[in-house]
Amino acid sequence: MTDRKNDLSHHTLLLGVMGDPIGHSKSPAMHNIALEASGIPGMYVPLHVKPEQLAEAVAGTKALGFSGFNVTIPHKVEMLKLMDELDESAVCCGAVNTVVIQDGKLKGYNTDGIGYVRSLKEELNSELSGKHITILGAGGAARGVVYALLREQPASVTVINRTVDKAEQLATEFSHDTLQVQSGSYDTLDKVLAQTDILINTTSIGMSPNSDETPLEQSRIPEGIIVSDLIYNPLETRFLREAKSRGCTVVGGLGMFVYQGAYAYEYWTGQPAPVSVMRSALLEAMNHQKE
Ligand code: NAP
């Protein structure tokens, strides 16, 4: 392999990720390995941007010739206002996680939900059409997941949330002529679960350092269904561990992170993302952090 550090030229693709904080981000490791594996001269850098300097930073990427960047906490919603154009994914999710800069124009996308659905289908090796799907949580991640799931012709989608108003609002917003998204509280969950094929946790319950927590007691998890968790730290949450012991097929959140990046990579480069290389780089970066 060539030494990319000595190979920077005007052809170099400049990419990055804006956030505050940003030091913990695994995206640079994942994307730099991907560029290297594809033989594309480029650099993906962490960009520490404070909220009050977001507009200046975004203008700076244009001036510096960036081809695009990712957006992470806390800038995903604010970024909407700074785009010249928005993809439907960003409008529906109410947040931008990927920006493509072309001919001096900024276009905002949201690849979180479509990334999750692509990883779910890959890991299950199955389509989602005709499935009854129940989602725990109604935050930002749930919005992207519902948006992407509805493109797969599921039989039903039900959103359960602690703050029921938020579940209702999400369901109303995403319902359309052919599918009414349902909503409810945790009190109604057992009835819903009796007819669920796929149960997805989009809440932050069980995320490190609170990895001893779970969104649902083990005894309430239906036996033998598909259970998924968006959380990828830890790789296997307590929720997924307990679902496994109920005979469920489980899908964790690592694939979502890989595929939201893969979509962004494909928008920026026009080439297929080297997904397995990206997954290995992400796992290595996570292991490195634990050392
Ligand atoms: P968010 O907008 O803050 O939403 C959090 C959700 O969790 C809300 O529905 C909230 O319910 C619920 N919740 C939090 N604590 C709860 C508790 N103690 N009891 C019941 N419900 C609780 O967060 P987000 O951006 O959607 O992220 C959610 C999770 O997705 C995080 O763990 C994040 O790491 C994960 N995620 C993973 C990826 C990936 O690439 N794998 C990408 C994005 C997000 P209320 O509305 O009632 O507060």
Automatic annotation (TrEMBL):
UniProt organism field: Paenibacillus nuruki
Gene: aroE
Pathway: Metabolic intermediate biosynthesis; chorismate biosynthesis; chorismate from D-erythrose 4-phosphate and phosphoenolpyruvate: step 4/7; Aromatic compound metabolism; 3,4-dihydroxybenzoate biosynthesis; 3-dehydroquinate from D-quinate (NAD(+) route)
Residues covered by the SDH C-terminal domain: 253-283
Listed name of the protein: Shikimate dehydrogenase (NADP(+))
BP terms from Gene Ontology: amino acid biosynthetic process; aromatic amino acid family biosynthetic process; chorismate biosynthetic process; shikimate metabolic process
Coiled-coil boundaries: none
Keyword NADP: yes
Reactions listed under catalytic activity: shikimate + NADP(+) = 3-dehydroshikimate + NADPH + H(+); shikimate + NAD(+) = 3-dehydroshikimate + NADH + H(+); L-quinate + NAD(+) = 3-dehydroquinate + NADH + H(+)
Positions contributing to shikimate binding: S25, K26, S27, T72, N97, D112, Y232, Q260
Signal sequence range: none
The enzyme's E.C. designation: 1.1.1.25
SUPFAM superfamilies given in the database record: Aminoacid dehydrogenase-like, N-terminal domain, NAD(P)-binding Rossmann-fold domains
Shikimate dehydrogenase substrate binding N-terminal domain mapped to chain residues: 17-99
Domain spans labelled Quinate/shikimate 5-dehydrogenase/glutamyl-tRNA reductase: 123-204
Its job: Involved in the biosynthesis of the chorismate, which leads to the biosynthesis of aromatic amino acids. Catalyzes the reversible NADPH linked reduction of 3-dehydroshikimate (DHSA) to yield shikimate (SA).
Class of the enzyme per the UniProt entry, highest EC level: oxidoreductase
Family listed: Belongs to the shikimate dehydrogenase family.
